[in-house]
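Final report, section 2: Outcomes. Of the targets proposed, Homoserine kinase is the one most frequently requested by collaborating groups, and we therefore present its record in full.
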Amino acid sequence: MVIVKIPATTANLGPGFDCLGLALNLYNYVSLEKSKEFKIEIMGEGREDISKDQGNIVYQCIQAVVKKAYEKKGFQERRNKRKEYQKNIFKKEDFKTLHITLTNNIPPARGLGSSSSALVGGALGANYLLGSPLSHGELLKIMTEIEGHPDNILPALFGGLLVSTQLEDGEILWSKTKVNPQWRYVVVIPDFQLTTDKSRSALPKNIPFKDAAFNLGRISLVMEGFLKEDISLLGKVMDDRIHEPYRRELVPGLKEILKTLRRERYPVALSGAGPTVMAIVESEEEGEGLGKRMQEIFLQYEVTSSVKVLSPNNNGAEVLSSTAIEPLIKK
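The predicted structure is given below as tokens.
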């Protein structure tokens, strides 16, 4: 049995559309163990909505990892020589009848990287049970092929702030920056789901040249703000013209929240595809107050929401030893 702990993520950070992501200390857990019959058990967030059949993305990712490992030259011969894996070794057929337990604290379809956390948990768990034949780069390629883009996968895997791009041949280039552990990230989570597909469908096929230039200048300064730990700079440059203007109609109250907080120079942005809104502050107390203000604005548009004040995660996903899974759900 293996358990993988995976952090939530917030992507884009304003102008960094599909290329910036940051890990937060809210966690999902993926548990994999041998079983005579295939079963997916879900606890916590999404237990009523997430698929429990073989179409589940965790299961699909696991199968892709197993397939890639067995295609790797010399894989079986090398693994058979490693005595530490002989007792609890997982064979190819064991992965068809897994008992998968998903313990979720990250709400699905809210813009906090729930699908990426599922992929990372499945990929790392399967790779561990196989004897770790695949590199992080190989796992990343598999996950990106399923997800479509790596901006949430990378921070969930490695922690910190990740900037990335994908070359035409499929190679993914990325760079990690550890972020100030004292900063806090206020996430205000509306009580409705917004799928990535629906959120992306609101985007135009083309954008004006001036809007592209607007974002290019700002994304450079967003990176500068994190590198120099300059939150006041972030408050001036975390706006966007590529995706947020087109997604505002999907999230009632979003336009007012962004306008109000940016006028006061708070670093604030739509988290990923939304509908969650994320703001950066310097203390827990400031975060709680700001979260309540954002909630009140949402209520003016008849949107109820919850608030979490989170610290960043600079370490990424972890493979844990076998333990009881139920206590891992945050009350």
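Residues 224 and 230 are 8 Å apart (CA to CA).
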